[in-house]
Write a sequence for this structure.
């Protein structure tokens, strides 16, 4: 059993690289996902993940399948959409979800158009589904860098970010950091999506961000529990997904995200915090 | 006008509103430091709007508010608190320390202070409970604990006792009186007139226009209250632009206000000093602390 899991990682360098990349992503993306979930912005990250496509595609057009070009392009496009949507939200009647939807649709269509201008079906598939088994040194460094910056930024922004989530009006009356903190958080979302896009592709980049966070909700009740549990779930999903994809010869990105999905389904059933089973067998209520 | 001392609030021709329609119209006057002021008026009279204006939540359409924004603690009527967020009662109270501690200073050293604040509002033993499990009254107590930790010179309370039972209200009113004794400035929007009479020395009766402002007994007369009811909720979709400019002082015609009465130029009450400082007529509009001479007087410009 142990051999079955460890074997491929011991044997093949590309599997070790894939694991390292996925573990880096597993410590940075899930905490972001926890905040997204708690702010009811889960689907917003999905929209953002599509918004980075034209940037990556533009990078691809200029430099081919080059990591720095596509990363920079993705970051630029994601941040631009986040900022534009924020600007429209603040200066017009549109709410954030509507303005974001408008911009990400424009962005997604532009991205698909750019890719189809030059390049083959295979290139498009690379961008959409990622290349986790072909992570080279720069890609690994990028994932590690993103994880480091994310954890550092979360540590620095933690208190105002929690306050902005719980009681934005209060934070507005006592301080002006609310807006900048929100923007910094959106920046972190975009960064982690670009990281996820290296490994899992734009379509599934959100997978390792949200599924572990949502899974953690069934195991922990506050942030000090949610964040570590979500990281653990993501790491577990990475190992399971990589092993599965090796042994059953499945595409890796979908296998990892499906593993995370499986963890979610199991947690939803047996998780001690509001899991279905616990709801069915209600323990006797207390005296007071 | 010079900047008032920390804890005082001054209004200078203040007009607040939405979509150019005033909800608080040309308010002048000052709330001295240490005042315990009740804001009274019918729904739509502009009480919440005025508190939002003081807190800096909305900008003014005209005129100015002079106050130290850093000295304000504000308890809104409709808070934006996400009660499903997994946060403990103690953490909610800790938020009150933000101005003192900022984003990074350790909270642990202030744990005793926060627990004492929770005890002061009758929530001892609740510190580890999630905010989502509290009842309405308990939640309001927790918010008052946060106000205690804010340690602010000015405390704004927007209908703090709506939907709160008598015992909790009594406890929290006791806290307000304690703050008053400590010399803090407190402005509270309230509907319970008996409560106002019992605990609040001064009252501002608002009906978009200030109807009366001064000692509570002189303000809460049947005549004033009837007038406030008549004046409120006059939202005219096609209202003309207000001629009573902030710059020119003597525009007295209010063609845009179908239900406006002539100004009675009586001048009494605790806040009369304001007029003397500036010597303009706007002070008179604001301070109608004297009884209305004839509340049954027909409206001089009825809504056609």
């Amino acid at each position: 059993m142990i051999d079955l899991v460890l074997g491929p990682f011991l044997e093949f360098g590309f599997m070790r690289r894939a694991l390292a990349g996925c573990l880096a992503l597993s410590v940075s993306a899930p905490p972001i996902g926890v905040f997204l979930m708690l702010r009811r912005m889960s689907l917003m990250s999905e929209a953002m993940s599509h918004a980075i496509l034209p940037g990556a595609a533009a990078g691809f057009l200029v430099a081919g399948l080059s990591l720095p070009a596509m990363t920079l392009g993705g970051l630029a496009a994601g941040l631009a959409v986040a900022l534009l949507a924020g600007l429209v939200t603040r200066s017009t009647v549109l709410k954030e979800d509507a303005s974001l939807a408008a911009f990400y649709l424009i962005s997604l269509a532009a991205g698909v158009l750019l890719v189809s201008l030059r390049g083959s079906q295979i290139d498009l598939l690379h961008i959409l589904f990622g290349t986790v088994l072909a992570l080279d040194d720069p890609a690994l460094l990028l994932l590690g860098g993103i994880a480091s910056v994310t954890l550092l930024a979360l540590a620095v922004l933690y208190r105002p970010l929690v306050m902005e989530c719980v009681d934005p009006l209060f934070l507005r009356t006592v301080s002006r950091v609310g807006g900048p903190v929100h923007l910094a958080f959106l920046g972190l979302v975009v960064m982690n999506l670009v990281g996820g896009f290296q490994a899992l592709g734009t379509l599934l980049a959100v997978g390792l961000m949200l599924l572990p966070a949502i899974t953690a909700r069934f195991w922990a009740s506050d942030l000090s529990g949610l964040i570590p549990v979500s990281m653990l779930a993501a790491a577990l999903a990475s190992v399971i997904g990589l092993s599965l994809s090796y042994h059953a010869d499945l595409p890796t990105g979908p296998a990892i995200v499906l593993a995370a999905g499986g963890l979610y389904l199991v947690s939803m059933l047996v998780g001690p915090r509001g899991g279905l089973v616990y709801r069915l067998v209600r323990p006797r209520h207390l005296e007071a | 006008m010079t900047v008032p001392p920390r804890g005082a609030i001054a209004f200078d021709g203040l007009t607040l509103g939405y979509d150019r329609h005033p909800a608080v119209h040309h308010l002048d006057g000052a709330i001295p430091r240490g005042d315990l002021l009740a804001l009274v008026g019918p729904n739509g009279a502009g009480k919440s709007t005025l508190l939002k204006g003081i807190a800096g939540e909305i900008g003014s359409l005209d005129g100015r508010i002079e106050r130290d924004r850093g000295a304000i603690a504000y308890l809104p009527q409709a808070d934006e608190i996400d009660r499903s967020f997994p946060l403990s009662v103690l953490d909610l109270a800790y938020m009150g320390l933000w101005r003192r501690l900022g984003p990074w200073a350790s909270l642990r050293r202030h744990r005793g202070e926060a627990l004492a604040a929770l005890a002061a509002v009758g929530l001892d033993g609740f510190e580890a409970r999630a905010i989502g499990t509290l009842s309405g009254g308990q939640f309001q107590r927790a918010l008052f604990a946060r106000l205690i930790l804010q340690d602010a010179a000015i405390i704004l309370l927007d209908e703090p006792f709506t939907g709160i039972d008598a015992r909790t209200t009594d406890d929290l009113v006791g806290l307000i009186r304690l703050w008053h004794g400590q010399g803090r400035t407190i402005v509270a929007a309230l509907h319970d007139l008996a409560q106002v009479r019992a605990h609040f020395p001064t009252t501002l009766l608002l009906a978009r226009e200030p109807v009366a402002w001064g000692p509570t007994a002189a303000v809460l007369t049947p005549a004033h209250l009837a007038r406030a009811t008549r004046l409120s909720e006059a939202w005219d979709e096609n209202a003309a632009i207000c001629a009573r400019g902030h710059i020119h002082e003597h525009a007295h015609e209010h063609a845009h206000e179908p239900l406006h009465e002539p100004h009675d130029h009586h001048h009494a009450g605790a806040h009369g000093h304001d007029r003397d400082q500036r010597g303009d007529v706007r002070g008179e509009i604001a301070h109608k602390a004297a009884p209305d001479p004839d509340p049954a007087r027909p409206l001089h410009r009825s809504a056609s």
